[in-house]
Specification:
The chain is mostly beta strands. 10% of the residues lie in helices and 52% in strands. Mean pLDDT is 90; it is low at 1-22.
């Protein structure tokens, strides 16, 4: 009898162990802390300030996965961006203002619903280069990108598995979900990436409905974005190029608007990272913004940044950057987490930054 009870206990323990393996799950807490001192010369004088999120957006996040068996997993991510210099919540003030989604991952790819990044944003990040972070201070794309086309609320995102080096991304967002002006913010974003060794290339498309005002009688228009990018890692240098076209009618008066209105424009960035420069990595970036309705809205961006890693998690950076604005352009050297020191239309901006990034 004693032997029988021992066998039963052993069987129960085996079942419990198997069940634990089947339902394996994990939750990770991660974060990025970026603080810098930035001095900018603008049309209204010189500003020196302590900044958050110059090279990398300061944030804290929670992500997890649960094994559902058969190669299927439930996944989630909640990410909050904040201002390290004041401790306040960044962006729109929402608790999870960067990413907020839940989804499934399996052999057929990954699907997630909530607040997601568009296919365009993934390409911005992959080809606007840097060592400590990409799409950050000094990158021309970071100065010219139009934010409503990057982060999408009320959205569903799908990423396929890699097939012969090709990965497909698709995102659909429901904007204001029928609130007037009806369909404003409705977005469809499609992208494809091809990788072969050191070479990578992307083609992306996004269409987004917008209005020039938030009035209930405001007509809704369709803005269309076309983006191409490529890079090749030679080892001693990694160059990359991005080129984006935006078209939509009519051309609104404002270049930046929270109502999804964006003037017709083209912009490009040519950038490169050079590793092993005195133990660090040098970023060189040049780009131009061209407004279609008038050359007075044009601007050019120049950036040089040096990233130096103290460890795998901590690094220092310093850089100089300049924006040259035509008479009706007011672009500035932007931080990774938001706009930089504001300037007036037609005024150039030159900026110097020194800072530190630490991750956990």
């Amino acid at each position: 009898m004693k032997c029988k009870y021992v066998l039963m206990a052993s069987a129960i323990a085996s079942l419990a162990c198997a069940s634990a393996v089947q339902a394996q799950s994990s939750v990770t807490i991660y974060g990025v802390l970026d603080a810098s001192i930035q001095t900018a010369h603008t049309g209204t004088g010189t500003t020196t300030r302590l900044d958050s999120s110059a090279v990398a957006p300061s944030r804290i996040g929670f992500q997890g996965a649960e094994d559902l068996g058969g190669g299927l997993a439930a996944i989630f991510r909640l990410e909050n961006g904040f201002n390290l210099d004041t401790g306040s919540i960044a962006g729109n003030g929402a608790l999870f203002n960067r990413e907020s989604w839940v989804g499934l991952r399996g052999s057929l790819g990954q699907i997630q619903a909530g607040v997601n990044y568009s296919a365009l944003f993934t390409t911005y990040v992959n080809y606007s280069l840097g060592e400590l972070n990409t799409l950050g201070w000094g990158n021309a794309t970071n100065n010219f990108v139009y934010v409503p086309s990057a982060r999408l609320s009320n959205s569903v995102r799908y990423v396929s598995p890699s097939m012969a080096g090709v990965t497909v991304r698709a995102v659909m967002a429901f904007g204001t979900e029928g609130a007037a002006p009806r369909t404003m913010g409705d977005t469809v974003s499609l992208g494809s990436n091809y990788k072969n060794g050191a070479f990578s290339a992307d083609l992306d498309y996004l269409q987004q409905k917008y209005a020039t005002t938030t009035a209930t009688t405001s007509p809704v228009y369709l803005g269309k974005y076309y983006l191409a990018a490529a890079s090749y890692d030679f080892g001693f240098i990694k160059p990359a190029v991005l080129y984006q076209i935006h078209r939509g009618s009519p051309d609104p008066a404002s270049a930046v608007s929270s109502t999804f209105a964006n003037p017709d424009n083209n912009f490009y960035e040519i950038n490169a990272t050079i590793p092993r420069m005195a133990g660090g990595t040098l970023l060189l970036s040049f780009g131009q913004y061209r407004r279609q309705s008038s050359s007075s809205g044009n601007a050019s961006s120049y950036g040089v940044r040096y990233d130096y890693r103290l460890s795998r998690r901590t690094g220092l950076y310093l850089g100089v950057s300049e924006i040259r604005n035509n008479s009706n352009a007011a672009f500035t050297v932007s931080n990774a987490g938001g706009p930089g020191v504001a300037t007036t239309a037609g005024s150039n901006v030159s900026s110097f930054v020194v800072g530190m990034v630490s991750t956990f």
